[in-house]
Write a structure and sequence with these properties.
Oligomer: single chain
Protein name: Tetratricopeptide repeat protein
Helix content: over 70%
Keywords: Repeat, TPR repeat
Organism: Streptomyces macrolidinus
Strand content: under 5%
Radius of gyration: 17 Å
Distance between the termini: 76 Å
Number of helices: 7
Length: 126
């Protein structure tokens, strides 16, 4: 009778577990731990926009603003109508001292979704 071998590396199931664990770490204010888990998920599934968005949020929370900017940019290339990604990229630019770029993304977010937080950040009255 042939032996069945167990997978030796990460499997799709372990990537889902890693994604869920990263969500929990981010919620528990451990963004660097979340990034570590998400690095493997994104490496295995670079097309997974949800994983990239979560990693971008973790980079932002860890004050790794250039990495957050890059990840939010990838998300927006794939989902240009993602209001949250525009808003979060605006916050990233704001923290980097780039107000013109921030306002552009805040206004795009507010145009896509009239969430009061997005509208307030967009400063349409200015």
């Amino acid at each position: 009778m042939p032996e069945t071998s167990e997978p030796t590396g990460p499997t799709p199931r372990t990537h889902v577990i890693g994604f869920r664990a990263a969500e929990q770490l981010l919620a528990a204010r451990d963004p660097r731990g979340a990034v570590k888990l998400l690095d493997g998920v994104v490496a295995a599934h670079p097309e997974n926009t949800a994983a990239r968005l979560l990693r971008a949020r973790a980079f932002f929370a860890a004050a790794q603003l250039r990495a957050a900017e890059l990840e939010f940019g990838i998300v927006l290339e794939r989902e240009p109508d993602n209001a949250f990604a525009h808003f979060a990229l605006g916050r990233t630019y704001e923290r980097q001292g780039r107000p013109e770029q921030a306002t552009r993304h805040f206004r795009l977010a507010a145009a896509l979704d009239p969430n009061p937080e997005y509208v307030k950040a967009a400063r349409f009255e200015s």
